Amino acid sequence: MVEISSDVIRGYNDTMILYILRKAPSYGYEISKQIKQLSDGKYVIKETTLYSAFTRMEKNGYIESFTAAPEADGGGKRRTYYRITGNGQQYYKEKCEEWNLTKEVVEHFITAEE
Predict the structure, then answer these.
(1) Is residue 114 part of a domain?
(2) H helical segments located in 24-85
(3) CB-CB contact of 22 with 89 (8 Å)
(4) What pLDDT digit, counting tens, does each position of 72-82 carry?
(5) pTM of structure
(6) Within a domain: 28
(7) Which residue, among 109, 112, 90, 75, has the nearest Cα to 22 in the 3D structure?
(8) Structural domain that includes position 77
(9) What is the percentage of the chain residues whose pLDDT exceeds 90?
(10) What three-state secondary structure class fits 27?
(11) Fewest CB atoms within 10 Å of the CB: 94, 97, 104, 113?
(12) 8 Å CB contact between 28 and 67
């Protein structure tokens, strides 16, 4: 089975995270779970990669973090959630356009033969 190279996908981790945050604020574990689910298990984002992306995107103004109280049932601890900002929405759009161009270029060099 072919695996996705981390070098290939690295530039699009932010895009995947922002895609999820466009729907609703979320927290690290839930975001990583959704990435795995949406990729049909073909990509599992490492925790260090995920939190590095959060730090970078927050510094760049694409997301913001906030702390939420534990669930109403009293279980669990306070979680750090992330939400996309207006700048993050714009960045997501730019990354989607970049991906379409990248895909168009690379497809010229991919063949079904061999």
Answers:
(1) no
(2) 28-38, 47-59
(3) yes
(4) 655 677 899 99
(5) 0.86
(6) yes
(7) 90
(8) 6-107
(9) 75
(10) strand
(11) 113
(12) no
